[in-house]
What does this fold into?
Amino acid sequence: MKVKYEEALKMIALSRKILLTTHTRPDGDAVGTLAAMKLLIEQAKLREQRSCKVEMLFLGKIPENYEFLLDEEPWREKGDVSLEDLDTKRLDSFDLIIVADTSSAKQLPGLFDYFRGRKGPVLVIDHHLDGDEFGDFRLVDTSAAAAGEIVFNLSRFAGWSLDEKSATALFAAISTDCGWFQYDNTSTDTFRIASELVAKGVRPRKLYQKLYQNFPPERLKLLAQVLNTLEMYCDNRLAVLHISNEMLAASGAHRTLIENMVNESQQIGSVEVSILLVEQENGSTRVSFRGRGELDVNTIARQYGGGGHAKAAGATVEAGPDKAKADIIATISKAIAE
Ligand SMILES: [Mn+2]
It folds into this structure.
């Protein structure tokens, strides 16, 4: 069921205790959108003189470069929780749960099972093409570059005023999801919203530094190893990078520092598809896909039980990196040939 802003706002207005949550491996859009929503809802409730408690739940570690967006310590769970691990009593205590930036059951381990039996409402705010149609109310706009764009539009509709802090959180959400306005999802709306956010006090240069130039040395040590794994296929149209557990250990880098490394091979002019395979602790392989040609990488990722967008997608393959790599290279080679 698709809802308009009005219905989403009604649900928020009726609630006195709201939980904001998002997908595993939270990214900039996930963290920025939740941070902005918390500020905006709290401020709106304050103006209306209604008491309301807004909390955030993250499944998985928040990358360090997004930590500055959060004022207080959120409720955190490991990324791979099951329903049994979750404090369902605590979850039940929220009048409303808002899930932002995903409609995928797989990206909500434990929580998705909880939603099936939950009595209270769940509102989904998302911009992804595919997903499981869960949630009592769905605010979905697949033309939005980021969930943060939908929240911006919601705030406009509601008449909520943005300050420097909430505007910065939304700018971080939007800009990270469109690769600092490089990706195809960057629309005239994206630029217009960005401009309005700058008018609210966002300082893009300062924010860029915090988001992209704020890593510990371990990231560069890992990146140096990753670049050395480069393999080219399909007349240099397909670039493959990989990360093993050994490389992670040798560099001392945390897994959250891997974000965006898949983009490195797009510096090569001929590359149409870039993939990065990351060995997981449990022996499976996480694969990130980036495309900039005709090939829709979402279709490829879906063949492996994952998904995303036409130009950026991901999947987890239940096989070691070598087997996963051979299989995916074969699939993409075939798709490129066609
Ligand atoms: Mn997003």
Notes: The mean pLDDT is 95. Residues 28-47 form the longest helix (20 residues). The pocket of manganese (II) ion is lined by residues 29, 101, 127, 146-147, 177 (CB under 6 Å). The radius of gyration is 20 Å.
